[in-house]
């Protein structure tokens, strides 16, 4: 089985990745990181750096890039990998914003083929 997470260079993305690494280690399973294609050139958080950091954590992993909608790519990757868990990061919202969950997060929660763990930064 697999734990799937998206890689975004923001506090929510880093918290989701950290939690996904911990989940994959505790479940003794692979980690599949889905990153937007633009992540390949993001400096210190580039895909090469990401792979090196994951190697240090000692978790088996694959990193794939996706074009277009990241929420759709995450759900598709989870279905293909027969994932046991998807980890997503959420940010704090204003009182009005709490009424509406982010559209990407909402689509992942509704369309995911497995449980979703939402973490806040």
Automatic annotation (TrEMBL):
Membrane-spanning parts: none
Domain UspA per the UniProt entry, residue ranges: 9-120
Domain of life: Bacteria
Pfam families in the cross-refs: Usp
InterPro entries associated with the record: Rossmann-like_a/b/a_fold, Universal_stress_UspA, UspA
Protein family membership: Belongs to the universal stress protein A family.
PANTHER family: STRESS RESPONSE PROTEIN NHAX, UNIVERSAL STRESS PROTEIN UP12
Protein name as it appears in the record: Universal stress protein family protein
Organism this protein belongs to: Xylanimonas ulmi
């Amino acid at each position: 089985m697999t734990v799937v997470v998206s890689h975004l260079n923001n506090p929510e993305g880093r918290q989701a990745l950290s939690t996904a690494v911990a989940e994959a280690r505790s479940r003794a399973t692979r980690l599949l990181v889905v990153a937007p294609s633009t992540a390949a050139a993001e400096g210190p958080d580039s895909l090469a750096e990401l792979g090196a950091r994951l190697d240090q954590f000692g978790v088996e992993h694959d990193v794939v890039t996706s074009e277009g909608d990241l929420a759709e790519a995450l759900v598709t990757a989870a279905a293909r990998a027969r994932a046991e868990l998807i980890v997503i990061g959420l940010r704090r919202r204003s009182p009005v914003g709490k009424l509406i969950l982010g559209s990407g997060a909402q689509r992942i929660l509704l369309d995911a083929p497995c449980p979703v763990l939402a973490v806040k930064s």
